[in-house]
Design goal:
By secondary structure, the chain is mainly β. It has one domain. The protein contains 1 helix and 8 strands, in the order E-E-E-E-E-H-E-E-E.
Amino acid sequence: MKWYGKIGFITQEETSPGIWEDVSTEKNYYGDIHKLSQKWQNGVDLNEDINISNELDIVADPYILENLINIRYVVYMNVKWKVTNLTIDHPRLTLLLGGVYNGQDTT
């Protein structure tokens, strides 16, 4: 299945001497979804958490190769999902998605 969407990168920038803040950047990419699966997980919350184990395969560009360590989430079906694993098979990258991303946001 084809995919087009945003990948979120989080970097840290020094805003004043000794003060670092997270900065979020989103870039658009094309890719293929190779594996679709989901599971509900009992947690401490009233409602069950959902985790997906989707594999997203994209063609790497210079930006993503320079910022591999900063990849945090992928927007899929209008939800930000955590990137839990990354496999490099140059020139392609495979991203394994996990639970809902609740960290730094661009908005």
